[in-house]
Amino acid sequence: MTEYFDNKIRVFAPATVANVACGFDSLGFAINQPGDIVEAVLQDEPGVRISEITGENGRLPTEPEKNTAGVAVLALLEHLEETRGIEMSLHKRMPLGSGLGSSAASSVAALFAANELLGRPLKKGEMLPFAMKAEASACGSPHADNVAPGLLGGFALIRSYDPLDVVSIEYPENLCCTVLHPHIELRTEDSRRILRKHIKLQDAVIQWSNLAGLIAGLAKSDFDLISRSLNDIIFEPVRSLLIPGFDNVKGAAIEAGALGCSISGSGPSVFALSTTMDKAYEVGAAMKEAFSELQLDSDIYVSAVNKKGPRVLQPEEDPVQPDL
Amino acid sequence: MTEYFDNKIRVFAPATVANVACGFDSLGFAINQPGDIVEAVLQDEPGVRISEITGENGRLPTEPEKNTAGVAVLALLEHLEETRGIEMSLHKRMPLGSGLGSSAASSVAALFAANELLGRPLKKGEMLPFAMKAEASACGSPHADNVAPGLLGGFALIRSYDPLDVVSIEYPENLCCTVLHPHIELRTEDSRRILRKHIKLQDAVIQWSNLAGLIAGLAKSDFDLISRSLNDIIFEPVRSLLIPGFDNVKGAAIEAGALGCSISGSGPSVFALSTTMDKAYEVGAAMKEAFSELQLDSDIYVSAVNKKGPRVLQPEEDPVQPDL
């Protein structure tokens, strides 16, 4: 059994669902699982060292400058003008390229762990720029729609990037999420490349009217309004072409009683929202069954919306386990 | 002094501010003034007769089929399969082509009056299709972003047209509006024609992020968030070219402490939101002064957000008066 001292910490950071159907590049929320785990130790020497990475078959580099967790903590240490350093091991408990904010979960877990070990000099929101820097290193642009909900928990709206303005959005306590992670991989770049740079004005009006409806529905816990608003008429029709069986999975989720169902981030994971955990499990079973018709494997994760972002884990605690 | 019997009624319907900066073709709200007044009398004979129109220099036709108030009530009577009819006089207390929902105010006042005289067979929301039919007759398309807030009061989101889904949006009680109506006229068609049919995806993301912020700010009475969100980066830069002095008027409003300022509907009226009536008057004075530098005249209307839409007036009551 691992022993824990004040200079050592184990942190979980949640997966996140960006876009949320109608909120492309604007809205995201965190879920209680899956996610990543970082174990970090405070060091007297400056800098960042990644001693180990488990999961994802050793595909991630341990050089801190090439790893989102490393990039984020290096930026934090530089900002704080720290003479101490951080050694960490990263346990990838969620797949890369899944559309669930895998890189964000790593950097958020690492940042939170480092900040705790350093005596909590920053609030969670103040770490956002360092997590965004890590996102930029991973995918070329400093997106915040995974790292913001990942750090803050709940639903986060990126109202503006210049200046950065992240708004926490109220939502109903009992909202639950089902995620189907198909065992295929999509690169965010590919999923972005197929999008057009211009859209029809009349489509944009429909999209932003749905987003406005979703925000209003979340704010007043109007599940019916949330359900009516969970439509993406611009991106889902294009991106879903890269996700085999998408229409069947979505149809099965709705049929099973989900409030709505769409692509998580840039895919290939698919999320559905429900009003109870029981319903979310039923929806998950229906989604998995629909997807299995393709002879492809998948994992289903069911959880409530994550309220607080990253958290310190007990020594043997393991919060990540596929439900189906 | 006019005598009032059960078969006669006098109704006020409010002006409305559509678009609300970032909610193009999607969001609108009603204000306590200006607006239109309809006097209506129940008749034993079927059909609609418009006996008189005051205001706007007799520019509006009294043939019911050519007048939004007439079209709306004809549609209502037909829907109800009424054997009785309505005679009405319409008092235009707000300018045509002002961007304040002038045609909507007339049809909403007429519908509400007729429905009351007929024993209130419909709820306010149920009259929306008839008001939309009148809008279609006036401007070619059945827009709801003036008639919906006009009928229901407050802020109304048109989440969807097909099927029609109008959502009342929560807002802070003390929100006040200043309207500058420049004495120039813009036809909605002209103001729509200069808009492009396609927009940049990156602009759309900024626009819908602001709309999401506005809805969230209204719902949680966060005036600072409302203020930060009141931006229109797509339409205002184009449409404001048709409004002389717009940049100066907006600058003056912000300088005087308004939460935000943009074009009302398709213009030329300009609206600003404030947190108190006192502030809204100060903002109005600053806007009027900025506009007067062009040697053009203008009216300023200051009022709280209208809560309930149309209402029955007392015999001599006159709710419309420019404040400056």
Automatic annotation (TrEMBL), chains A, B:
<comment type="pathway">
    <text>Amino-acid biosynthesis; L-threonine biosynthesis; L-threonine from L-aspartate: step 4/5.</text>
</comment>
<keyword id="KW-0791">Threonine biosynthesis</keyword>
<dbReference type="InterPro" id="IPR000870">
    <property type="entry name" value="Homoserine_kinase"/>
</dbReference>
<feature type="domain" description="GHMP kinase C-terminal">
    <location>
        <begin position="215"/>
        <end position="292"/>
    </location>
</feature>
<dbReference type="InterPro" id="IPR013750">
    <property type="entry name" value="GHMP_kinase_C_dom"/>
</dbReference>
<keyword id="KW-0418">Kinase</keyword>
<dbReference type="InterPro" id="IPR020568">
    <property type="entry name" value="Ribosomal_Su5_D2-typ_SF"/>
</dbReference>
<keyword id="KW-0963">Cytoplasm</keyword>
<dbReference type="GO" id="GO:0005524">
    <property type="term" value="F:ATP binding"/>
</dbReference>
<dbReference type="Pfam" id="PF08544">
    <property type="entry name" value="GHMP_kinases_C"/>
</dbReference>
<feature type="binding site">
    <location>
        <begin position="95"/>
        <end position="105"/>
    </location>
    <ligand>
        <name>ATP</name>
    </ligand>
</feature>
<feature type="domain" description="GHMP kinase N-terminal">
    <location>
        <begin position="71"/>
        <end position="154"/>
    </location>
</feature>
<protein>
    <recommendedName>
        <fullName>Homoserine kinase</fullName>
        <ecNumber>2.7.1.39</ecNumber>
    </recommendedName>
</protein>
<comment type="function">
    <text>Catalyzes the ATP-dependent phosphorylation of L-homoserine to L-homoserine phosphate.</text>
</comment>
<dbReference type="InterPro" id="IPR014721">
    <property type="entry name" value="Ribsml_uS5_D2-typ_fold_subgr"/>
</dbReference>
<keyword id="KW-0808">Transferase</keyword>
<dbReference type="Pfam" id="PF00288">
    <property type="entry name" value="GHMP_kinases_N"/>
</dbReference>
<comment type="similarity">
    <text>Belongs to the GHMP kinase family. Homoserine kinase subfamily.</text>
</comment>
<dbReference type="InterPro" id="IPR006204">
    <property type="entry name" value="GHMP_kinase_N_dom"/>
</dbReference>
<dbReference type="GO" id="GO:0004413">
    <property type="term" value="F:homoserine kinase activity"/>
</dbReference>
<dbReference type="GO" id="GO:0005737">
    <property type="term" value="C:cytoplasm"/>
</dbReference>
<keyword id="KW-0547">Nucleotide-binding</keyword>
<dbReference type="InterPro" id="IPR006203">
    <property type="entry name" value="GHMP_knse_ATP-bd_CS"/>
</dbReference>
<dbReference type="GO" id="GO:0009088">
    <property type="term" value="P:threonine biosynthetic process"/>
</dbReference>
<keyword id="KW-0067">ATP-binding</keyword>
<keyword id="KW-0028">Amino-acid biosynthesis</keyword>
<dbReference type="InterPro" id="IPR036554">
    <property type="entry name" value="GHMP_kinase_C_sf"/>
</dbReference>
